[in-house]
Design a protein that fits this description.
By secondary structure, the chain is mainly beta. The chain has one helix and ten strands, in the order βββαβββββββ. 5% of the residues lie in helices and 43% in strands. One of its GO terms (molecular function) is carbon-sulfur lyase activity.
């Protein structure tokens, strides 16, 4: 089982920055419309394991469909850094766009397929 690591990252222009603790044991490869069109791959972390370090005032929130997930993107470069939502049991969760982690190589991560298109 992978060990938890403290990771940093942010948007393309660097105005939005975060730090989180996760093991990246599950990274999604979802086929829903937004993940497909934006090329998103999420790792889900508990809110207490995610800290927004810079750029809170530089975020734009996007809601669609059932308005259950609050997608957060940088106002300047447009990169979606994370989203806030709830698991099916109601537990709060942060969906971290793993492509925003400093030094990440997506090709080296094991992706878990998620059929969001047919939910």
């Amino acid at each position: 089982m992978p060990a938890n690591k403290t990771l940093t990252g942010g948007c393309h222009c660097g105005l939005v920055r975060f730090e989180c603790t996760t093991d990246l044991a599950m990274v999604t490869a979802c086929n829903c419309s937004i993940c497909t069109k934006r090329g998103l791959h999420f790792a889900f972390v508990a809110p207490e394991r995610f800290q927004l370090r810079a750029g809170e005032d530089n975020l734009t929130e996007y809601l669609f469909n059932k308005h259950a997930i609050r997608h957060q993107s940088c106002n300047d470069c447009g990169v979606e850094v994370f989203a806030r939502g709830s698991k099916p049991d109601g537990t709060a969760v942060v969906a971290l766009n793993v492509a925003c982690i400093d030094g990440i190589e997506l090709a080296k991560l094991k992706m878990t397929p998620v059929d969001g298109r047919n939910r």
